[in-house]
């Protein structure tokens, strides 16, 4: 009889008691931030006991899924526009939106010594035939690249050399396969812990040449009552998480809080 | 109604689909003939390779073509060694990619037509002194004409509709590689819905028309054979 | 000379084909056997549509296959005409174009004159502009024969050309087939499983069973060969090649002579003296007697010698008789055979109840 009671107690503990100590949180994350997030999730679990379930995808696709009722509780976007759209559509909580990282733009070539440290190569248009950029209409990094070229006064001369990737990943593929000699990519794609993971040569574009590429996270309506969700958003702002974020080639938002 | 860049995309698309279909008919017909007749061990693996584009996601095909045709890839290096330019981001590159991508849509209907040919008609031709190539042109091809028609239309329509591969290989360059499907996508992503709708409607009407014609002609020729 | 010499060895799914055959240079050689005995395969080997690993095939002095010399001519290199069971006309070509298909490819100077007699022989003049889909089964088969002849073949190979047709269509086409050997100076190899067609058309008969040769020889001989399955069937019959030797107009009879004697036939007014006749006599219509029957209504009673006998173990006996150069089968009861004490070599009288002119 005693053992039966004990079993019941165990069962109850397993089914009812567990969520009190550790919750799960369903996260939708833009593909380019999935690796840092996984690393953060490991630390997050050891510190809070909460488990992060991560689904990665393109920002636009994830937006469409959330719009159609996908069970995500947090959305970690590759831009700030999409979280704003979710807030406007009343699918996310406005006060929860914040910039967790700022993307940095780089001019990269998979060949050594192709790109100089000051980006002078852009002024010698005869030295390359293709310049890869992400579609400026749709991708923030593409828009930033256009902004840079405009500021440098090179847009008109270089436009005929553009090859457009649909997104920043495809743009990276154009350059890494050597089909485009150089291209504007995200620093997070080519750098980890200050080392060029794919080799090649790079010009880190000075941040005063383009508006910050803010990447925002937001709490979705479905995660409103999940403590683990709020805990994760808070955790993204801790120095531990920020150290991981910067190690992947992102900058951190300026000290003043984003609205 | 359409912007100049829309017109340019339409023209480019038609040119791409026409060229691709012609090349596929020339290459695909002997390939289909071989696959329909051979009993060699390579029939199964070869058929599988031909069918791959049906199952592989277009972006995957696009990526591997980008790798293979690029300056670091096997084909790209071979072309460079011949003093040629590499294919990605060129119209020729689009043609090559489309030929590969639309291959099963041309080969399979022709192969089916060849396989359903009455074997004895081919034998009859050979007893009437026709050598094998002669049999192919004078009997097999004319009798497989509905398969050839289906192949032509499917190859053409599929090339017009393809998106992932051209985007990857083409690099979305206006007047060179920006075809209608990419143009529509651009319009949608940029929330230019009116222009997107117009182009999409054009594509829809066009695709419906040629598919409708294909079924119409095929059902006619079936009827003719039965009567 | 167009006599065929074939020797094939070929392993098939259920049996192996092993044949060494000489076929005459003219006339119809029927290859008879049940379905699946290898007769079509044999024909395909001659045409070069099938390749026997070990084989030899020659017509006259022209060798088409000799595996010992690694010689093998493909079908299109052999001067054959081939008629398939289901006509196999090209559906996308008109009758005329079908006829020209082979003609154009078989001679350097295609000449419409070649076609005229063939078109006439098969009576297809009025069909020339039609498409095959608009032809009846019998018409299709006649066109197919004409198409095979248009290539001026050295041998005409026919694979059960009547098998796909109904009785009426067969009757329509048989006269055309029967005329072929008289008009053509080439051998015709005719594959069939129908005893009817054999007796009506063949001059030479080859009997196959499971890929092996059971009997081969002149039709009259082979048909009555007690070794062959044809001679022991209920439909067993004999063929006698005779000619009209006179008429008895007032009795409404025609007399037909052959080496074994004279037969009275129903009046054949239109057949003049000397006309060759092919007569079929069913074995069940022949009875035997030791003495010449007197005062009988049966007209045809002929001298014969018993050449062989076979008992079926079910009360019936098949007796093979020799009448001059001809052979005749008589199907009698075993009891009669015993009571009459029939023995090979005995002289008997054959009473023939009915004779059919083919």
The CATH homologous superfamily of the largest domain in chain A is named: Periplasmic binding protein-like II
User: Order of strands across the biggest sheet of chain A?
Assistant: 2-1-3-12-4
Biggest interface, residues from each chain: B-C, 21 and 23 residues
- The name of the CATH topology of the largest domain in chain A is D-Maltodextrin-Binding Protein, domain 2
Q: What is the CATH fold-level name of chain B? A: MetI-like fold
Distance between the termini of chain B: 47 Å
Low-confidence stretches of chain B: none
Average pLDDT of chain B:
89
Number of domains of chain B: 1
As an assembly, this protein is heterotrimer
Largest sheet descriptor of chain B? none
Beta-strand percent range of chain B: under 5%
Number of strands of chain B: 0
Report the radius of gyration of chain B as a whole number of Å: 20 Å
Helix content of chain B: over 70%
Query: What is the CATH top level name of chain B?
Result: Mainly Alpha
Number of helices of chain A: 10
Account of the 3D structure:
The complex is a heterotrimer of chains A (259), B (227) and C (358). Chain A has two domains: 2-102 and 214-247, Periplasmic binding protein-like II (D-Maltodextrin-Binding Protein, domain 2, 3-Layer(aba) Sandwich), CATH 3.40.190; 105-204, Periplasmic binding protein-like II (D-Maltodextrin-Binding Protein, domain 2, 3-Layer(aba) Sandwich). Chain A has 259 residues and is α/β, with parallel strands linked by helices. Chain A contains ten helices and twelve strands. In chain A, helix 2 (34-48) runs antiparallel to helix 10 (239-247). In chain A, the strands form three sheets. In chain A, strands 2-1-3-12-4 form a five-stranded mixed sheet, sandwiched between helices. A five-stranded mixed sheet of chain A has the order 7-6-8-5-11. Chain B has a single domain, classed as MetI-like (MetI-like fold, Orthogonal Bundle). Chain B is built from eleven helices and no strands. The longest helix of chain B has 34 residues, at 4-37. Chain C has helices at residues 39-47, 95-106, 112-122, 137-149, 167-183, 195-201, 219-223, 334-339; strands at 4-11, 16-23, 28-32, 54-59, 62-66, 71-72, 80-83, 155-159, 188-192, 204-209, 212-218, 237-248, 253-258, 261-266, 276-282, 286-289, 300-311, 316-323, 326-333, 347-352, 356-357. Chain C has a six-stranded mixed sheet with strand order 7-8-9-3-10-11, sandwiched between helices. Chain C has a five-stranded antiparallel sheet with strand order 2-1-4-5-6, covered by helices on one side. Chain C is built from eight helices and 21 strands. With 358 residues, chain C is α+β, with helices and mostly antiparallel strands. Chains in contact: A-B, B-C. At the B-C interface, helix 6 and helix 7 of B face strand 7 and helix 2 of C.
């Amino acid at each position: 009889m005693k053992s039966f009671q004990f079993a019941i107690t165990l069962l109850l503990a397993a089914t009812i008691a567990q969520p009190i100590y550790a919750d799960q949180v369903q996260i939708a994350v833009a593909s380019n931030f999935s690796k840092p997030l996984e690393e953060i999730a490991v630390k997050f679990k050891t510190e809070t006991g909460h488990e992060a379930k991560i689904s990665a995808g393109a920002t636009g696709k994830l937006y469409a899924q959330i719009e159609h009722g996908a069970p995500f509780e947090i959305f970690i976007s590759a831009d700030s526009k999409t979280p704003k759209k979710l807030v406007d559509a009343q699918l996310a909580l406005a006060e929860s939106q914040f910039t967790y990282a700022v993307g940095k733009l780089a001019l990269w070539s998979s060949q050594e010594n192709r790109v100089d440290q000051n980006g002078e190569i852009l002024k010698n248009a005869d030295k390359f035939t293709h310049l890869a950029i992400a579609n400026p209409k749709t991708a923030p990094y593409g828009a930033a690249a256009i902004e840079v070229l405009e500021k440098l006064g090179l847009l008109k001369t270089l436009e005929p050399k553009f090859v457009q990737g649909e997104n920043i990943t495809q743009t990276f593929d154009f350059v890494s396969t050597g089909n485009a000699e150089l291209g504007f990519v995200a620093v997070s794609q080519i750098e980890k812990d200050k080392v060029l993971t794919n080799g090649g040569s790079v010009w880190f574009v000075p941040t005063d040449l383009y508006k910050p590429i803010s990447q925002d996270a937001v709490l979705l309506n479905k995660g409103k009552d999940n403590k683990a969700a709020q805990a994760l958003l808070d955790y993204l702002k801790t120095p531990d998480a920020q150290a991981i974020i910067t190690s992947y080639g992102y900058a951190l938002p300026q000290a003043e809080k984003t609205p | 109604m359409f912007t100049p860049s829309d017109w340019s995309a339409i023209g480019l698309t038609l040119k791409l689909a026409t060229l691709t279909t012609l090349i596929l008919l020339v290459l695909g017909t002997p390939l289909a003939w071989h696959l329909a007749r051979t009993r060699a061990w390579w029939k199964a693996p070869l058929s599988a390779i031909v069918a791959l584009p049906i199952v592989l996601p277009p972006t995957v095909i696009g990526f591997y073509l980008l790798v293979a045709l690029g300056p670091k890839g096997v084909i790209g290096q071979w072309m460079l060694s011949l003093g040629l330019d590499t294919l990605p981001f060129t119209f020729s590159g689009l043609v090559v990619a489309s030929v590969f991508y639309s291959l099963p849509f041309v080969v399979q209907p022709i192969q089916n037509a060849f396989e359903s040919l009455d074997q004895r008609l081919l034998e009859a031709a050979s007893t009437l002194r026709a050598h094998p190539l002669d049999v192919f042109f004078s009997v097999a091809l004319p009798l497989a004409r509905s398969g050839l028609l289906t192949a032509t239309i499917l190859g053409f329509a599929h090339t017009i509709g393809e998106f992932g591969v051209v985007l990857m290989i083409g690099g979305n360059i206006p007047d060179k590689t920006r075809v209608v499907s990419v143009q529509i996508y651009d319009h949608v992503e940029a929330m230019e819905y009116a222009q997107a709708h117009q182009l999409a409607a054009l594509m829809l009407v066009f695709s419906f028309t040629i598919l409708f014609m294909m079924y119409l002609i095929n059902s006619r020729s079936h009827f003719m054979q039965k009567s | 000379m167009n006599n065929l010499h074939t020797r094939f060895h070929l392993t098939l799914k259920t049996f192996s084909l092993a044949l060494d055959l000489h076929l005459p240079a003219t006339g119809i050689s029927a290859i008879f056997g049940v379905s699946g005995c290898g007769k079509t395969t044999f024909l395909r080997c001659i045409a070069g549509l099938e390749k026997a690993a070990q084989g030899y095939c020659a017509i006259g002095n022209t060798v088409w296959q000799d595996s010992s010399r690694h010689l093998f001519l493909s079908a299109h290199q052999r001067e054959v005409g081939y008629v398939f069971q289901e006509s196999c006309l090209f559906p996308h070509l008109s009758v005329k174009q079908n006829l020209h298909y082979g003609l154009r490819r078989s001679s350097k100077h295609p000449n419409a004159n070649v076609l005229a007699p063939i078109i006439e022989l098969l009576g297809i003049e009025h069909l020339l502009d039609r498409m095959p889909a608009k032809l009846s089964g019998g018409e299709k088969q006649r066109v197919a024969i004409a198409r095979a002849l248009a290539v001026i073949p050295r041998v005409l190979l026919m694979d059960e050309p009547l098998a796909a047709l109904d009785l009426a269509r067969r009757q329509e086409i048989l006269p055309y087939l029967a005329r072929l050997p008289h008009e053509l100076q080439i051998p015709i190899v005719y594959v069939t499983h129908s005893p009817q067609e054999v007796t009506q058309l063949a001059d030479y008969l080859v009997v196959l069973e499971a890929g092996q040769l059971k009997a081969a020889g002149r039709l009259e001989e082979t048909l009555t060969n007690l070794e062959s399955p044809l001679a022991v069937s209920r439909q067993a019959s004999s063929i006698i090649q005779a000619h009209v030797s006179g008429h008895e107009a007032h009795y409404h009879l025609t007399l037909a002579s052959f080496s074994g004697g004279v037969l009275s036939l129903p009046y054949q007014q239109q057949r003049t003296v000397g006309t060759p006749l092919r007569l079929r006599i069913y074995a069940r219509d022949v009875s035997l007697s030791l003495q010449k029957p007197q005062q009988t209504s049966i007209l045809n009673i002929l001298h014969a010698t018993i050449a062989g006998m076979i008992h079926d173990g079910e009360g019936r006996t098949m007796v093979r008789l020799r009448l001059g150069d001809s052979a005749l089968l008589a199907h009698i009861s075993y009891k009669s055979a015993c009571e009459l004490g029939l023995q090979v070599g005995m002289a008997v009288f054959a009473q023939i109840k009915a004779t059919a002119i083919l």
